């Protein structure tokens, strides 16, 4: 054994002896040195303590089905769009339920004022309606559209009021220095439009919303708008 090897072993033994003496002086001679953690591995004391999740109680199939049903999203019914129906129409819900879309009311209208509702009216598409921009109702005395309606969604015991007509003074010729009484002259309901100082005024209690005034108005774009009723009375 050469001299360098003897010195190395002597230093190693001396280091161990010094360490044992130091631990003995501190009263820690029986303890082992702490193990060095591996690089990158988290120590257990640093990990968050997560309590175990309690086991959910088992439920019978019937209870589970009832719970699933109760938490399901309820269906919401859409509010029907206001539609200008022919005279004598029942409430909209009953109308949509009873109308067979037979087209008989359209075929007997003498002025072809009753047309088919286009697809934009959703579930009402294909049902009869009035479009004053195309043709207005003339309030026939014998109401053939009501007489021919077999499903009974147009009834003689229902009000004939279909909509409300409103004059827009900024667009009306009579309100802007011109003389015009066409709406009052052509209105099929006596007294529904009166003229005061050359200006027409709609009497709401008499107006049926037939749309004649809006259809014949000579003002650009028509100075009268016709608004369908939000709904109608239930059938008696």
Structure characterization notes:
- With 236 residues, this protein is an alpha+beta fold.
- Among the domains are: 79 residues, no CATH class; 69 residues, Alpha-Beta Plaits.
- Helix content is 25%, strand content 10%.
- It is built from 7 helices and 6 strands; from the N terminus they run H-H-H-H-E-E-H-E-H-E-E-H-E.
- It has a two-stranded antiparallel ribbon with strand order 1-2. A two-stranded antiparallel sheet has the order 3-6.
- The relative contact order is 0.14.
- About 8% of the residues have low confidence.
Put the structure in a nutshell:
This protein is α+β, with helices and mostly antiparallel strands. Helix content is 25%, strand content 10%.
Strand order across the largest sheet? 1-2
Mean pLDDT: 80
The tally of beta strands, per DSSP, is: 6
**Uncertain runs:** 59-76
Elements, N to C (H/E): HHHHEEHEHEEHE
Distance from N terminus to C terminus (CA atoms, Å) equals: 125 Å
Multimerization state: single chain
| Class derived from helix and strand content | alpha+beta
